[in-house]
Amino acid sequence: MNIKIKGSRRERSEFLWGWLFLLPTMAGLIILNIIPIIQTVYQSFFKTGAFGRGNVFVGLQNYEKLFTDSLVWQALMNTFKYALVEVPFSIVIALLLAVLMDGKIRGKSAWRTIYFLPMVAAPAAVAMVWRWLYNSEFGLFNHLLNSLGLSSVNWISNPSTAYISVAVVGIWSIIGYNMVLFIAGLKEIPRDYYEASQIDGAGGVKQFFYITLPLISPTMFFVAVTRIIGAMQVFDSIYMMMDKSNPALVKTQSLVYLFYRYSFVEGNKGYGSSIVLLLLVVILLITVIQMVCQKKWVNYS
Amino acid sequence: MKRKWGFTAAAIAIAATALVGCSSQQAGKETTTAGKEETKQAEETTKAAENAGGGKTLTVAIWDKNQEPGLTEIMSDFTKATGIKTQIQITPWEQYWTMLEAGATGGSLPDVFWMHSNEISKYAQYDMLLDLTDKIKDSKTLEMDKFPKEIVDIYKWEGKKQLAVPKDIDTIALWYNKTMFDEAGISYPDATWTWDTFADAAKKLTKSDGSQYGFTVKPTNDQAGWCNIVYDMGGYVISDDKKSSGFGQEGTIKGLTFLTDLMKKGYAPPYEVVAENADEALFEAGKVAMITQGSWMLPELCNNDYVKANCDIAVLPKDAASGKRISIYNGLGWAASANTSMPEEAWKLIEYMGSKEAQQKQSDLGVVISAYEGTTDNWVKAYPAFNLKAYLDMKEDIVIRPYSKSTMVWTNMIHDKLIDAWNGNKTTEEVCKDIEKEMNSMLASE
Amino acid sequence: MDKSRKIRESLIYVILFTGSVTMLVPFIWMILTAFKSTSESTQMNPFIIFPGVWRKDAFISVLSKMNFLRLYWNTLVLILGRVVCAVLTATMAGYAFGRLHFKGRNLAFSLVLFQMMVPTQIFIIPQYLMVSRLGALNTWFGLLFPGLVTAFGTFLLRQAYMGLPASLEEAARLDGCNIGQTFLHVMAPLTKSSMVALGIFTALFAFKDLMWPLVVNTEQNTMPLSAALAKLQGQFVANYPELMAASLLACIPMVVIYLLFQKQFIDGIATSGGKL
């Protein structure tokens, strides 16, 4: 009897303290995120007037437009293409670097510092310097090509390859971040696994595929999920690197870029809302698929 | 409004203090002081925000960094005369309208700012601008009939409310690289030039190795670029009643085809190069021999070392058949926010900027060609090394920059669609017809 | 055996070296261009790699046009404000999620998980309208607004609390501490490394945030570096030395801080991610 009262008092106290602690975060999440989502959904049924006034209810018109707007579908394709280049390469290169640095290497922290450096640079600065490097007339890259006797490349204005150039900037920026996560993941692999396999006569490559890869798969899963979500939201580099008159823009602009343009440049926030909701659905779908598939390859030992 | 969130911050801070306060005494004390500090900080932020938004300083928003030094000088005269301080904020064109729209939505427009024919109707429609009509009537220094009527009309909403006072007038002229002309053995452009002479020169000035081209013009360079030749050849962009597009007109197609044909022949850099670099950037780098540019570009071009050493200005070529040498012109206006906290001060600044004295100084300093009649003579002396007179000569036959209520929307559409004509993916005629159709439907829904 | 190992080792160094040169090229080019004159930067014949004279012109001109002290200060306020808010709220919520059992906890936590998956752009328009209705456009509060709480941080701290042994809590309870005291004196101090990690993570992404400051803070007085740089590009179409000088000035503070606190940075990032 006595214990039961104590238990319920403890329960009550946990309930009160729990919600007290949650209060700021929950209030914030509701105000900053939940209400905005509801508003975005609501707004997507309106044709928005200038300065947030004169909104007209248009029903599903924005969605009808969305499904027939070739720019939107092109932007979705562009976003996928960007992610398909950026995510795998940034993971593979980062993993390779992490494995190389996992052994006995001189100047480990110096290497790590260099590879992580792009992460701490202002993204606008990064985009500007890459745009300058890529410049078809005055850029360093084309000069190097020319001096090797090769002809110039329109890095960011060739519609069929510009997304790759933008993705390269993404890869360059994120490698260090992924690498640090992989290095941390590798540290958790018990050394005796390697020693045991060495006795069994397994070489470096075999060790990598039979020990390292399976044991680092949880980290890889984390990186893959977060990177795909990140890549699907690419905006900064496209916004900074490509002018409105760039012929490759239509074949490169991402959904978020289109959302920014419609919502804030052309003042059509209702249509912008429907675009960003499309992005939400796509990201949720991909994440769910990843969660389902993880059982096939992620190894939680 | 601003005070409100100061309270909110204070309330949050107090709530936070109370939250942690129920734990042990010592920790409670620590957090209380922290809470107080937060409140204090919040108050300071509020104050800083108030200082930035109000006080005794007028915020003035403009988009052209080239004009800042000159305008600062004129406004310091204004401050001396009236005691009203001003602070200029520059936001580049691309983001300027996003900034203004954000300000209008949130009720925090700058006090005084530039207006443009592209955007005036939107701001007028929602009563975002201070109505200056009565104030102008009562003013002793401001004489509206000294300004070009068409520019005054742009800012006269529905023919009644004057919402902005003309600031300047801009015309277009031809920039050419003397060194390249000398090298190719061609005489410099002058008033006898027709567009055919231009085409001929462009051909001779183009080097086959791709190191030098005759000219360049971006699809986005409408007013200072392709629009002029379109009007020369009898075409137009929008009809006088602003109801229909002129892209189906023979002259329009002819003018644009003339330009795109020259591009196809390789007398202009490939479109990819044009897209990545501004017209003037290619000119400044000695990549192209000729560009057409507006008078607002003078500070940029005239202060560039390479341009100073090699280049000069001439009037635009004329059309051989029609004999027309048209310059598209436009004029910005000074407008004030309808809900500025200092309407009197804002009006005084606008009145001053429209006075003969300030307009004269604006021309004298070479900032831009002032809109006020008879103030422009000294403007040509602003950059003595260049033949600025060409810009004034271009004032003889001018057409106002095409505009309607939704200029921005159809201008963006035209810029987008012209890319296909520029890089040759579609025929120019095809693109024009397409633009005509889309623009007409946009105009119909205005 | 020894020989092949040596070859393998030197191969590793070659790869690492080539890789780091590639990583550094943009930075080097930024520095070289910033010290050139405009015409040097666009000269093709001959192409100029090193500036003839190391000019400070671009820096002088950029510093006269932009108030960098102000921009640094705004950025610092943005970063510190977001870090303090994130660490405070996430520590409390993380403890509740990780250690306490109460009604509604799972529902609340699913809200946190949901937020982590939603693209942040979805919140921008409504958040922007809220800020503008509060009259807080172009204020620091407006700048901080979306970072007042953090779903990711909450998740991170929850993981940290879940990893702590239950015996500590029991001991504190036997000493007569209530839940608040237990949290403050016993549990919270043990998650210091996660708090630091969250702080660094938040700081880094606050520094890199572009779209929010771009729409909310359009005045120079309260604008952070990222947005000011984006604006700069529109102003100096062709002046690459100035653009690069400004980029360099924008990057230097964070790079210096990073070089000074490398270990904390790397450890922080490593802690902030890993497994879901």
From TrEMBL, chain A:
InterPro entries in the record, alphabetically? Answer: ABC_transporter_permease, MetI-like, MetI-like_sf
Where does this polypeptide localize?
Cell membrane
Keyword annotations for this protein? Cell membrane, Membrane, Transmembrane, Transmembrane helix, Transport
For this protein, the record's Gene3D superfamilies field holds:
MetI-like (1.10.3720.10)
Gene Ontology CC entries for this record: plasma membrane
Q: Which domain of life is it from?
A: Bacteria
Q: How does it sit in the membrane?
A: Multi-pass membrane protein
Q: Does the keyword Membrane apply?
A: yes
GO biological process entries: transmembrane transport
Membrane-spanning segments = 16-38, 80-101, 113-133, 162-186, 207-235, 271-293
Domain named ABC transmembrane type-1: residues: 76-290
One Pfam entry for this protein is BPD_transp_1
Q: Tell me its family.
A: Belongs to the binding-protein-dependent transport system permease family.
Q: Per its UniProt record, what PANTHER family does this chain match? A: ABC TRANSPORTER PERMEASE PROTEIN (PTHR30193), INNER MEMBRANE ABC TRANSPORTER PERMEASE PROTEIN YCJO (PTHR30193:SF37)
Q: What is the protein named?
A: Sugar ABC transporter permease
The species this protein was found in: Lacrimispora algidixylanolytica
Classification of source organism: Bacteria, Bacillati, Bacillota, Clostridia, Lachnospirales
UniProtKB/TrEMBL annotation, chain B:
Pfam families, sorted: SBP_bac_1
Q: Where is this protein found?
A: Cell envelope
Give the signal sequence positions: 1-27
Write out the ranges of the annotated region (Disordered): 30-51
Keyword Cell membrane assigned: no
UniProt key word Signal? yes
Q: Where is the composition biased (Basic and acidic residues)?
A: 35-47
Example GO CC term: the record gives:
cell envelope
Under InterPro entries, the record lists: Bact_solute-bd_prot1, SBP
For this UniProt record, the keywords arranged alphabetically read as follows: Signal, Transport
Where is it predominantly found? Answer: other
Q: Name the PANTHER family on file.
A: ARABINOSE-BINDING PROTEIN-RELATED, SN-GLYCEROL-3-PHOSPHATE-BINDING PERIPLASMIC PROTEIN UGPB
Which family is annotated?
Answer: Belongs to the bacterial solute-binding protein 1 family.
* Name used for this protein in its record: Sugar ABC transporter substrate-binding protein
Q: Which organism is it from?
A: Lacrimispora algidixylanolytica
The top of its lineage is:
Bacteria, Bacillati, Bacillota, Clostridia, Lachnospirales
UniProtKB/TrEMBL annotation, chain C:
Q: Which PROSITE patterns match?
A: ABC_TM1
Keyword tags:
Cell membrane, Membrane, Transmembrane, Transmembrane helix, Transport
Protein name in UniProt: Sugar ABC transporter permease
**GO annotation, cellular component aspect:** plasma membrane
Give the family this protein belongs to, as stated in its UniProt record: Belongs to the binding-protein-dependent transport system permease family.
In what way does this protein cross or attach to the membrane? Multi-pass membrane protein
Q: Domain of life here?
A: Bacteria
- InterPro entries, A to Z: MetI-like (IPR000515), MetI-like_sf (IPR035906)
- Annotated transmembrane regions: 12-35, 71-95, 107-125, 137-157, 243-261
Q: Where is the ABC transmembrane type-1 domain?
A: 72-261
**Alphabetized Pfam families for the sequence:** BPD_transp_1 (PF00528)
Q: Main site of residence?
A: membrane
Q: A GO biological process this protein is involved in?
A: transmembrane transport
Q: From the Swiss-Prot or TrEMBL record, state where the protein is found.
A: Cell membrane
